[in-house]
């Protein structure tokens, strides 16, 4: 579904991502872990087309997309829930969700009822401005907006960061439901919680100082804890 090969990304002269190769198989949830500041969000922005790599390649569904812009990638089925949510605070919940439809090749103005089943608060508050929601509700809105695009590959950048436990549990169940019932959808998840990661992911990568330092189907705490603890 998604393949990164020898990716290198820099801000000006400062290299942040160094020779990163990573694969997301169809229907799998892949978790990328690591301390703050090691390059995880930079990698996600590069996959989405917000940043351009200095070297290496990105392949999505067998197509080379390294030079394609973010709009092209979104319309090809890459969905993105960025760290910090990045909703439009002056627009209503419903208007934020409608913006997600712009990324779909098939134009329509109907929000799939499944979005409201996942996050009932979005229907209850659809006329409220996004900026008036709590942090957890804004995270649900950001997640819902990405799902509106009907993505084949969903990029989730720390979706549980700083939100209350009941919403973390809701997000966990949504990921599990996508995994069970939408087998053509893959997820690349950036997460720092061992328990959350192990409950949803099929494969794990750990980053440190811009490099992949561990990968495998098992998250072995003794091996990776030194890369995660502060």
Short description:
This protein is of the alpha/beta class and 230 residues long. Helix content is 35%, strand content 26%.
Note the gap between the termini.
33 Å
* CATH class placement: Alpha Beta
Q: Which regions contain 5 or more consecutive residues with pLDDT less than 50? A: none
The dominant shape is globular
Mean pLDDT: 87
Total DSSP helices: 9
Largest sheet: 6 strands, mixed
Report strand order across the widest sheet: 6-7-8-3-9-10
Q: What is the radius of gyration computed over CA atoms, rounded to a whole number of angstroms?
A: 17 Å
Describe, in plain words, how this protein is organized in 3D.
The protein is an alpha/beta fold and 230 residues long. The protein has a single domain (2-228), classed as P-loop containing nucleotide triphosphate hydrolases (Rossmann fold). The chain contains 9 helices and 10 strands. It has a 6-stranded mixed beta sheet, with helices on both faces. It has a 4-stranded antiparallel beta sheet with strand order 2-1-4-5, covered by helices on one side. It is globular and about 45 Å long.
Give descriptors for this structure.
single chain, 230 residues, 6-stranded mixed sheet, 4-stranded antiparallel sheet, 10 strands, 26% strand
């Amino acid at each position: 579904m998604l393949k990164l090969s020898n990716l290198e990304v820099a801000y000006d002269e400062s290299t942040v991502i160094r020779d990163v190769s990573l694969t997301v198989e169809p229907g799998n949830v892949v978790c990328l872990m690591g301390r703050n500041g090691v390059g995880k969000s930079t990698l996600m922005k590069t996959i989405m087309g917000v940043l351009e790599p200095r070297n290496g390649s990105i392949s999505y569904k067998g197509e080379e997309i390294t030079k394609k812009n973010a709009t092209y990638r979104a319309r090809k089925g890459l969905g993105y829930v960025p760290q910090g949510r990045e909703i439009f605070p002056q627009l209503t919940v419903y208007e934020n969700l409608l913006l997600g439809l712009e990324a779909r090749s098939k134009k329509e103005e109907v929000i799939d009822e499944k979005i409201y089943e996942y996050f009932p608060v979005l229907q209850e508050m659809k006329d409220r401005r996004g900026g008036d929601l709590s942090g957890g509700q804004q995270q649900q809105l950001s997640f819902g907006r990405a799902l509106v695009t009907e993505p084949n590959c969903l990029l989730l950048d720390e979706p549980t960061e700083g939100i209350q436990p009941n919403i973390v549990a809701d997000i966990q169940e949504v990921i599990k439901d996508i995994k069970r019932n939408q087998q053509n959808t893959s997820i690349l998840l950036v997460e720092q919680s061992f328990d959350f990661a192990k409950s949803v992911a099929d494969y794990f990568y750990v980053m440190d100082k811009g490099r992949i330092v561990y990968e495998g189907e098992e998250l072995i705490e003794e091996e990776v804890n030194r890369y995660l603890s502060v």
